[in-house]
Write a structure and sequence with these properties.
The protein is of the alpha/beta class and 262 residues long. It has two domains: 60 residues, no CATH class; 136 residues, Nucleotidyltransferase, domain 5, CATH 3.30.420. It contains nine helices and five strands, in the order αααββαβααββααα. A five-stranded mixed sheet has the order 3-2-1-4-5. A hairpin with an 8-residue loop joins strand 1 and strand 2. Helix 4 crosses helix 7 and helix 5 crosses helix 6.
């Protein structure tokens, strides 16, 4: 290396930002440096780079599996959130991704922190060829049931993608078959195995969570900003005390509710 680094803080800063090639050069130049802080920094940088490489390989495998499923054609990934809550909509995300622009960090939305989901959702919307989020409101869930509501939501999402000028060859669904489109392929745990399904789960989750936070301003008694409509003790106690709000699913709450106060 052309220069000698005099302070451990300078070396640590370089190691913290080094890519693989830069690290290889630094590691060679620092072999004779026995300072403990430097040795620790070298080990940390190596672990960081190994973790980054493993993450790239994991995400690349999601894209590769999607390409295999769609035989290289155009695929749309779909996933839902909000199947089980007592309140709020059923929400479906749909995403079409470019093949050669991977978004590292994507995963099943349940495996990600809220902050990480927010960052990834913005990146997904920026990088996607097309995306859509569709909602089925609580009264429609009560009227039609969950399975029919899922079919309606997925069909709306597919149509919204096609309305953006996208010709879809393969429809990729997380979980069990819905038999709602002859291009449909269902993948168990698809939100952790297929890139576009992972992305769909993230944008659906972020959108629905934000909506429930807004509903909490109108109906603060139920803690929707914290429970997102799911049946937490706080939420169930509030239903027992206040009855149902207009965004509750009556068919999900029959054993809990008094008459609504709204």
């Amino acid at each position: 290396m052309a220069r000698t680094y005099q302070t451990s803080s300078e070396i640590i800063a370089l190691l913290r930002e080094a890519d693989s090639e830069q690290f290889a050069v630094l590691e060679r130049s620092l072999k004779a440096d026995t300072r403990k802080t430097v040795r620790v920094a070298v080990d940390r940088a190596q672990r960081r780079l190994e973790n980054e490489q493993a993450e790239k390989e994991r995400v690349n495998a999601l894209y590769q599996f999607e390409s295999e499923l769609s035989h290289g054609g155009v695929s749309v990934g779909l996933d839902e959130v909000g199947r089980g809550p007592l309140a709020g909509p059923l929400t479906v995300g749909a995403v079409v991704l470019p093949a050669n622009d991977p978004i590292y960090g994507i995963n099943d939305s349940k495996q990600l922190s809220p902050q990480r989901r927010e960052v990834l959702a913005a990146s997904i919307k920026e990088h996607a060829i097309a995306w859509s989020v569709q909602h089925i409101e609580p009264d429609r869930i009560d009227a039609a049931g969950m399975t029919a509501s899922l079919r309606v939501a997925f069909k709306r999402a597919i149509r919204a993608i096609e309305d953006q000028g996208i010709s879809i060859d393969t429809v990729l669904l997380d979980g069990n078959p819905l038999h709602m489109d002859n291009r449909e392929i269902s993948i168990v745990h698809g939100d952790a195995r297929v890139a576009s399904i992972s992305c769909a789960s993230i944008i659906a989750k972020v959108t629905r969570d934000a909506l429930m936070v807004e509903y909490a301003k109108t109906y603060p008694e139920y803690g929707f900003d914290r429970n997102k409509g799911y049946g937490s003790k706080e939420h169930c106690d509030a239903i027992a005390q206040y009855g149902l709000s207009p965004i509750h699913r009556v068919s999900f709450c029959e054993s809990l509710a008094q008459n609504s106060l709204f």
